[in-house]
Amino acid sequence: MKFTDKPVKTVVVKVGTSSLVDDGGAIDDVKLGNLVDQLAAIKKRKKDLILVSSGAIRAGMEKLGISQRPQTIPEQQASAAIGQGALMQKYAELFGIFSIIPAQVLVTRDDFNNRLRYLNIRNTLYTLLRFGCVPIINENDTVATDEIRIGDNDTLSALVAATVGADLLVNLSDVDGLYDGDPRAGVECKLIEEVAKITPEIEALAGGTHGVCGIGGMRTKIEAAKIATNSGVRMVIANATSPNAIVDVVSGARAGTRFLAKKTELNHRKRWIAFGHRVKGSVIINEGAREMLISRGKSLLAAGIVGCEGVFEIGDLVAVIDEHHNQIARGLTNYAAAELTLIRGKHSDEIETILGYKDFDEVIHRDNLVLGV
């Protein structure tokens, strides 16, 4: 499937802190204005648009006179509490010029973990789009702790794109895209214009975080691309400093690095299973079980399990890995780690004798299992 085969109706745009600040680290009104100008131009084309915007903590730092990003959760929460309102005020003023209504949506990881809250997010976003609004989404840093943090807006933007079934995710960066080397190191390297499949070699090209304001990097953008493309969403990494980067990408012009969506996309429930949850542990399976899952589409039974890692409970998301430590799937487990330790390698008709009860024949039912993620 070519990148431009599917029409673009719903667009998610992610902008990081580094793309919103000036050389001194302050929120740059010119950059913010250019961003909104482009988004308004896209809205004028009758596109549904969602913006995932960083910058709240940076805006709060500016108000507080702090030059370095706070390192503790309470300091980050305080900065976000001050900065989120200031940032939204700027967006409201700029979008108001075009008679566009922005809507603030703040989320945490728990909003994606919980199925009901996940559906509520999706329904709210659909309703806002129906009213012609531009939802502006950010992680709720004011209340988020390590346990419920998504951690970066690259991942958040991909989760949002998967949740609403977007056609395109535009991930703005401070570089032109993914290179076969590090352009910051001063060595000659080549821009990779299109990625049909995210291989280990592609993942190895991702670097770390740069700058004192942001927390993302190319590594998180590749992780975001994996979520997006598995969910049938095309993604482009483009340079935010280009005056018309977003408009060009939405128009189909070649810009940055394009990531092609998989031909067979996950349905909404399987997207939630694969990406909405945080992995709590893993189950290790033998070659026979691997074959049954991949080639025959079967559920995972205790007989094919040779071990487990981590502490997890019934209903938690676990990674399914083979004996060579390759992850082949993720799924919701019907048994806790302590139970699997006792029943691994056993036939389903032995479970009740061992545990004293048997709620399920399957450890992970195929309806709750997602391969290839």
Q: Could you characterize the architecture of this molecule?
A:
By secondary structure, this protein is of the alpha/beta class. The protein folds into two domains: 10-270, Acetylglutamate kinase-like (Carbamate kinase, 3-Layer(aba) Sandwich), CATH 3.40.1160.10; 279-371, PUA domain (Archaeosine Trna-guanine Transglycosylase, Chain: A, domain 4, Roll). Helices cover 36% and strands 19% of the residues. The protein has 13 helices and 15 strands. The protein has helices at 29-44, 56-64, 73-96, 110-113, 115-130, 153-164, 200-204, 218-230, 245-250, 268-276, 287-296, 337-343, 351-355, and strands at residues 10-15, 48-53, 102-107, 134-139, 168-173, 194-195, 234-239, 257-259, 281-285, 300-301, 305-310, 317-322, 327-332, 362-364, 369-371. The strands form three sheets. An eight-stranded mixed beta sheet has the order 3-4-2-1-5-7-8-6, sandwiched between helices. It has a five-stranded mixed beta sheet with strand order 11-9-12-13-15, sandwiched between helices. β1 (10-15), α1 and β2 (48-53) form a beta-alpha-beta unit. α1 crosses α3, α2 packs across α3 and α6 (153-164) runs parallel beside α8. The protein is globular. The two termini are 20 Å apart.
The fourth-level CATH homologous superfamily of the largest domain is Acetylglutamate kinase-like
* CATH architecture descriptor name of the largest domain: 3-Layer(aba) Sandwich
**CATH topology (level 3) name of the largest domain:** Carbamate kinase
How many β strands by DSSP?
15
CATH class membership of the largest domain: Alpha Beta
Largest sheet: 8 strands, mixed
Overall body shape: globular
Number of separate domains: 2
Please bin the fraction of helical residues.
25-40%
**How much beta, percentage-wise?**
15-25%
Please tell me how large the radius of gyration is: 22 Å
Residue stretches low in confidence (pLDDT < 50, at least 5 long) are: 208-216
Average pLDDT? 89
Write the element-wise H/E pattern from the N-terminal end onward.
EHEHHEHHEHEEHHEHEHEHEEEEHHEE
- Provide the spatial order of strands within the biggest beta sheet: 3-4-2-1-5-7-8-6
What distance separates the N and C termini? 20 Å
Count of helical segments? 13
What class would the helix/strand composition place it in?
alpha/beta
